[in-house]
């Protein structure tokens, strides 16, 4: 029998025989994960970062779906707007995705763009009009699908969203009408969700989302921003687990989110794990950041931080300013994974730079870095954190992952890590 080594000596292009190995991997999936569905390897592509992260830089061959962000809701139910997301890039995005065999979706809403979902779906008349708006938008741009990133039905998001206690039932009625539409029936319909099921009319999480499962292809659980500048201490941006944390530190995680959504009737194979290629920064006094362990100093868990000295993140960070609601906001403090490299926290291969303190939290399976001079601590996901999430996806038969955002990674360090761990075939050698 020829070894792989001798095959390559013979000059056989085994390494690049993608289709052979790819289809074998599919057979593996089909027998072990689900006989009828293909895995999802997805990311959101932020239209407003197209200049810094051009379409040509997307590793299309590592994705099955890519979602352009955002088409924001506007006061009129007859339109959505690409203002702020570079409308001119969208047709090129769709063309590039299709050239690469990747499904092209557009995400509607987002943190700043969810203001008018509630009124758009409030009445039968508006739902019918909004179905027409969405299907025409999908047809105009030749999209394969639409992602609904309503933050959040039945629960205020940014602060000035229209909101109604009937939001979730109206959302469902809208999705059902969209699914029944002649265009809508062929679209991939997904939703980006909070870590707990959407709120019902009583303000509590829905206990039955099975009707949503019938009309959506999948939900992508946004398991990030769990801890940030609004929190009481420095905690994990994107915890894999929190049932191992102190009760007061159980703010959500992939483990608890999957449990909550599946208990409410969303099958695991219709659940995609939302993962973050960015982290949150905090100003932490060195006295709080470090504790003694024998003779050396180690980073403390859940230290206090000084909110009045919120660091500014990388150049993609939101600067201090005024939001769409007219409220004054501080800097976001976000560092993309590449931004942590740029700022000297990490080497370009993603490992911790010399002179930087590091902690990998075993419960959340996420990383922390700290610069004693600037007193900046960042909670983020590194390759090990992404590998742990990939293993979780595989072990629990999730549909796959979706990363916010495609351009946050550096040299595919994160993407390759989660793909490999969740069982996708990587062909880096080609
Ligand atoms: C596989 O996916 C199909 C279609 O979504 C679903 O009906 C079925 O229950 C899934 N099977 C398992 C074992 O998860
Ligand atoms: C885009 O790709 C080019 C060519 O490989 C590379 O030089 C550049 O650094 C990349 N930019 C980003 C933002 O990834
Ligand atoms: C809808 O919005 C787009 C820009 O996003 C604009 O070009 C178009 O004129 C608008 N259509 C209507 C009917 O308002
Ligand atoms: C229906 O949509 C229109 C905008 O096109 C909006 O003005 C109106 O308030 C909506 N109806 C409800 C009940 O929210
Ligand atoms: C919610 O829907 C019910 C039934 O359609 C209706 O009677 C009620 O007025 C609605 N409530 C709100 C706040 O729109
Ligand atoms: C989460 O933590 C609980 C409690 O420590 C543990 O039993 C479980 O195995 C952990 N799950 C994962 C995926 O790490
Ligand atoms: C937080 O930072 C501000 C501004 O530098 C400073 O005035 C304040 O004393 C700090 N608070 C604490 C608790 O260290
Ligand atoms: C830590 O921050 C200081 C001040 O911003 C900076 O000069 C230094 O290069 C940083 N250290 C490392 C190892 O990046
Ligand atoms: C990452 O890069 C640093 C600095 O160049 C180097 O010291 C380290 O060995 C590299 N780590 C790995 C795993 O390659």
Concise summary:
The chain is of the alpha/beta class and 430 residues long. It has a domain of 279 residues: TIM Barrel (Alpha-Beta Barrel), CATH 3.20.20.80.
Keywords:
430 residues, alpha/beta, 8-stranded parallel β-barrel, 5-stranded antiparallel beta sheet, 12 helices, 18 strands, globular, disordered N terminus, binds 2-acetamido-2-deoxy-beta-D-glucopyranose, chitin binding, chitin degradation
Task: Tell me which CATH architecture of one domain applies here.
Answer: Alpha-Beta Barrel
- Helix content percent band: 25-40%
**Largest sheet geometry:** 8 strands, parallel, barrel
Instruction: List SSEs in N-to-C order.
Output: HHEEEHEHHEHEHEHEEHEEEEEHEEEHEH
Structural class: alpha/beta
Number of helices: 12
Spatial order of the strands forming the largest sheet = 1-2-4-5-6-7-8-18
CATH level 1 class label of one domain? Alpha Beta
Q: Output the CATH topology of one domain.
A: TIM Barrel
The count of strands amounts to 18
Ligands in the structure?
A: 2-acetamido-2-deoxy-beta-D-glucopyranose
């Amino acid at each position: 029998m020829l070894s792989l080594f001798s095959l390559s000596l013979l000059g056989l292009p085994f390494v690049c025989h993608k289709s052979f190995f790819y289809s074998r991997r599919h057979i593996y999936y089909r027998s072990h994960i689900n006989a009828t569905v293909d895995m999802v390897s997805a990311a959101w592509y932020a239209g407003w970062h197209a200049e810094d992260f051009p379409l040509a830089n997307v590793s299309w061959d590592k994705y099955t779906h890519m979602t352009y962000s955002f088409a924001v809701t506007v006061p009129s139910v007859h339109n959505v707007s690409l203002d702020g997301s570079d409308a001119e890039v969208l047709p090129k995005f769709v063309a590039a995705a299709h050239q690469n065999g990747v499904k092209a979706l557009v995400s509607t809403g987002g943190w700043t763009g969810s203001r008018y979902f509630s009124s758009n779906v409030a009445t039968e008349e508006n739902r019918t009009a909004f179905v027409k708006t969405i299907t025409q938008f999908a047809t105009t741009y030749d999209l394969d699908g639409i992602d609904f990133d309503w933050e959040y039905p039945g629960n205020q998001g940014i602060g000035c969203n229209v909101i109604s206690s009937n939001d979730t039932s109206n959302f469902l009625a809208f999705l059902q009408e969209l699914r029944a539409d002649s265009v809508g029936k062929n679209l991939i319909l997904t939703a980006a969700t909070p870590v707990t099921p959407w709120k019902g009319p009583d303000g509590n999480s829905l206990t039955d989302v099975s009707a949503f499962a019938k009309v959506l292809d999948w939900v992508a659980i946004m398991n990030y921003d769990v801890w940030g500048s609004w929190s009481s201490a420095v905690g994990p941006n994107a915890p894999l687990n929190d049932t191992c944390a102190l009760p007061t530190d159980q703010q959500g995680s992939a483990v608890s989110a999957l449990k909550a959504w599946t208990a409410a009737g969303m099958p695991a194979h219709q659940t995609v794990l939302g993962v973050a290629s960015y982290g949150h920064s905090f100003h932490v006094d060195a006295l709080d950041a470090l504790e003694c362990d024998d003779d050396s100093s180690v980073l403390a868990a859940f230290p206090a931080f000084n909110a009045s000295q919120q660091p500014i993140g990388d150049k993609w960070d939101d600067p201090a300013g005024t939001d769409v609601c007219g409220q004054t906001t501080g800097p976001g403090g976000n560092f993309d994974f590449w931004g942590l490299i740029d700022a000297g926290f990490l080497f370009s291969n993603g490992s911790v730079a010399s002179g930087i303190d590091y902690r990998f939290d075993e419960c959340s399976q996420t990383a922390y870095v700290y610069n004693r001079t600037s007193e900046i601590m960042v909670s983020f996901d590194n390759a090990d954190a992404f590998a742990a999430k990939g293993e979780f996806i595989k072990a629990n038969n999730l549909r796959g992952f979706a990363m916010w955002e495609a351009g946050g990674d550096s040299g595919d360090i994160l993407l390759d890590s989660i793909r490999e761990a969740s069982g996708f075939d990587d062909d880096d050698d080609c």
